[in-house]
Design goal:
The strands form three sheets. Strands 3, 4, 5, 6, 7, 14 and 15 form a seven-stranded mixed β-sheet that branches. Strands 10-9-8-11-12-13 form a six-stranded parallel β-sheet. Strands 1-2 form a two-stranded antiparallel ribbon. Helix 2 (116-135) crosses helix 3 and helix 2 crosses helix 7. By secondary structure, the protein is α/β, with parallel strands linked by helices. The relative contact order is 0.16. The protein has helices spanning 41-47, 116-135, 152-163, 176-185, 217-221, 245-250, 268-284, 300-308, and strands at residues 2-6, 15-19, 29-39, 65-73, 85-89, 99-103, 107-109, 143-147, 168-172, 189-191, 205-210, 224-232, 257-260, 291-296, 315-319.
């Protein structure tokens, strides 16, 4: 089968299309003929070698979520899954391929009317956005800032905050065109990447959901209201300064909170329940999955170049 692996860590040109054996599902797994493969920010972080200390090596097969049809099941898996269209989480490996395997507890049937591309644009990111707002104890009427809102996590967080009755939903993004699209999704204020806009944006926020991290993170801690909660869900802009916690200590009397969030800490059944609800909402038109572009699998290098250049609004999807 055709697959995409990391030949060398670094820029996107280090990705390589290779031929690999079709995987055989182990006990408790299913094999899926992929129709849509999500290209996520974590894929770029792994590709750059930033997570090599956690065991990722050159030769790694990228990809964490796919949609497609089950073609085989492993020992102990109900055979009735065969032939069904599903969304699947493949871990942090194995998605950029014509066939992928997943644990049966990490697959979810696709409802009629939901495309594979929409499923992988929403399946992983929607759960992160939902539980990040939950971790932040977001309540109706509060002001929310979504930093790095043009990616799939940010886009869903904007929609969920707006649907949840936020008093204001501010976003950071790189252009007026993106800002207009985010307003269409529920944003009320558009800021530049440094958090400035020069208009009537609230001076402070009750909740900040941050996908970016990086050296400017402390500036956004400063934007928290008293009792404000900051939840970091990604580091696509790199690690924050080592001493960023000093900003919290300097503001000790304002009772600020900082948390990281990974959906890995949410029990599987809870993730699947939220995912199923969001898929249903997408079919009904109550939640929008935003697909930037659909590219052939063998153009994964181009997909990663576009991510690195900051050109992507939503999610790029690969197809075999």
């Amino acid at each position: 089968m055709k697959a995409v692996v990391i030949r060398t860590f670094g820029d996107p040109d280090g990705l390589e299309v290779v031929d690999l054996p079709v995987p055989v599902p182990a006990p408790g797994q299913v094999r899926i003929a992929t129709e849509a493969i999500g290209v996520g920010g974590v894929d770029a972080v792994i590709r750059r070698g930033a997570l090599a200390a956690y065991g990722f090596r050159e030769g790694h097969l990228l990809g964490s979520e796919v949609a497609g049809s089950v073609t085989a099941v492993g020992e102990g898996v109900d055979a009735s899954w065969t032939g069904r269209r599903v969304w699947a989480f493949t871990g942090l490996s194995g998605g950029y391929a014509e066939h992928a395997v997943s644990a049966v507890e990490d697959i979810l049937p696709l409802p009629d009317g939901l495309t594979g591309a929409d499923a992988v644009a929403l399946g992983g990111s929607g759960v992160v956005a939902h539980f990040a707002l939950d971790r932040a104890r977001f309540m109706p009427g509060e002001t929310v800032l979504v930093r790095g809102a043009a990616g799939s996590i940010g886009i869903t967080a904007v929609q969920l905050a707006a649907r949840g009755g936020a008093g204001a939903v501010a976003v950071t993004t790189s252009s007026a065109e993106r800002g207009a699209r985010l307003r269409d999704l529920g944003a009320t204020h558009v800021l530049d990447r440094s958090g400035e806009d020069g208009s009537d944006t609230p001076l402070g926020f009750d909740v900040v959901i941050d996908v970016v991290g990086g050296p400017q993170l402390p500036l956004f801690l400063d934007r928290l209201n008293s009792n404000g909660r900051f939840v970091a869900v990604g580091v696509v802009g790199g690690q924050p300064p080592a001493d960023f916690g000093m900003r919290l200590m300097d503001a000790f009397r304002r009772s600020l909170s900082f948390a990281t969030f990974s959906s890995d800490t949410v029990p599987g059944p809870d993730r699947q329940a939220v995912r199923s609800s969001q898929f249903a909402a997408a079919v009904q038109g109550d939640l929008r999955a935003v697909v930037h572009e659909v590219l052939p699998l063998d153009q994964a290098v181009l997909a990663h170049h576009r991510m690195d250049a900051g050109e992507v609004f939503g999610r790029i999807v690969l197809t075999p």
